[in-house]
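Each record in this resource describes a single protein on a pair of labelled lines. The shape at a given residue is found from the number at the same position. The record below illustrates this layout:

***
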Amino acid sequence: MLLNAITPGDMVRSVADIDLDDLEQRGIRGILLDFDNTLLAWSENTVSPQVMGWVRRATKRGFRLCIVSNAPDERLAAQAKRLHIPFVSKALKPTGKGINRAIELLGLRRDEVIMVGDQMFTDVLAGNRSGLFTVLVNPIYLREQWWMKYVRGLERRLQKRMGLSLPA
């Protein structure tokens, strides 16, 4: 059923709120991260100090991170280099193609990897379809492309219907 396919395993306010202790206890070793509005605002070119600190803590603790985005290479490459993590561009989410490439790149099993993103119809759907635990975060910035307001509106209505609410 579609609602199950777009239901995240967990919901947090920001990437910086993902509990690394909890992930470690559950045997998670890899974290796939959406790019736009998950790591940074889609209109920006810098990651916040909070997200940058979380990425540093995660990598220092041995988590393998990879950005998985539908965005083209150019914009991702600079941020991935700054964060010192690999990336998969043009991931074709909600298909699992980019996720499969990222898992292979990290050299981990599916049960050791989670998918984190801000959209139910791309990030959560792709992660769930790929057999990963999924985490939905609040979008960093809501002034997006004109068509995204319709997607966000539909997501909010579905979240309400499903009894889900993202932390404020």
Remarks:
- Residues 148-162 form the longest helix (15 residues).
